[in-house]
Amino acid sequence: MGEMNTASISANELLLIMASISVLGVVGGWIGEKIKIPDVVIYLLCGVAFGPAILNVVNIDAFPIVNELILTFGSAFILYEGGREVKLKVLNEVKVSVGLLASLGVFITAGIVGISAYFIFSLPISTSILLGAIVASTDPASLIPVFRKVPIRNKLKQTIISESAFNDAFGAILFTSVLAGITLTEKIGLAHTTLQLIFMILIGVLVGTGIALIGIALSSDKKFGIFYEYAPIISVIIVIFAYEVSERFGGSGYMSVFIAGLVYGNKKRFGLWVPDESYVSGIHFRENIATIARMSIFIVLGSHLDINSLLKYGMNSFIIALILMLIARPIVVIICTAFDKRAAWTKNEKLFMMWVRETGVIPAALSGIVVSMEVPGYEIISATVFMTIVVTLIVQASTTNIVAKKLDVLEK
Known about the structure:
Layout: H1 2-35, H2 39-50, H3 64-85, H4 88-93, H5 95-102, H6 104-121, H7 125-135, H8 140-149, H9 154-183, H10 190-218, H11 231-248, H12 253-265, H13 276-304, H14 307-338, H15 347-355, H16 361-373, H17 378-395, H18 400-407
Helix pairs in contact: 1-2, 1-13, 2-13, 3-9, 3-11, 3-12, 3-13, 3-16, 5-9, 5-14, 6-7, 6-14, 7-9, 8-9, 10-11, 10-12, 11-12, 11-13, 13-16, 14-15, 14-17, 15-18, 16-17
Keywords: Antiport, Cell membrane, Ion transport, Membrane, Transmembrane, Transmembrane helix, Transport
Subcellular location: Cell membrane
Membrane topology: Multi-pass membrane protein
């Protein structure tokens, strides 16, 4: 009877925490809309205020499984949505730039930030590179809402969105590889890590493509689309199976869900289509799921923040954020666009790409994983990721429209 009572109390507490997160998310989103600040910044601050550091209303640390579920599924679903935003027709015109920005760019960013963290924080080089890998990717969940309000040139918009979606997957894979090297007692060589990275990508691509095609076929308007009325729910099923199957075969779950989203978003190229009614209802359903995922991830991240660590490492964290924005990003854009002669990027378009690189959901989720595992140096990583998200979103996301007008990159 005692065990049942304990379980019942835990379940009730968990329900209260989830309800609290939802209330904070709704109120935070409303406040962000009113004061014209990105909602994720408000979510972070709400997590800090109502987390263990201050009011202790939201303490997800008592439920590690739920904590991992929010971070893993939330980031996976947002990556899936990012994949759906990428259009292969436009992507084909700028594939060289996108491919280099999303792959080589991630490694360059992780290297510059990692080396900077090594000297600024005196962290072990492996932990420094782990920090670099976490903040190396940009955020489609923050970029897409901004670009819906700011009419950027289509080629430029699709390039930035595609990069943010692809580099999230590459950043997550790099993070997984570095984290494995830190947490495993056995040392892993560079060649082995490289082969493992390639294997994870290939498995992720194959699994994501296969599961997406099965899901689309079963929910399409073809004669075998017997579940077309459940197309919105099938999207969630695709995300779960793409992630889990890929992980169980040693692939990258994050790459798998992104590819699944890419295939689903370009289903007409595979001769498949979802009935209009299911398509429209699916958009609203997925937007709600993605919104819940975003608010949950950032509130949980904020609740994990140690105020003492932020005060202790705040200035150095701010310096890392500036290095990321003003040194690493310009270098990445200059190098990665230099090889794409077909895209014919103008100077102003390159400058705009240098400015628009918000840090958001995936870094937040990966930081949460590091904190929950208590990897050595997690306090520094948590404080730096928090600072980077806040600075890039407040400074860059809030000024996207102004910068676009100054650089004359708006759609005519």
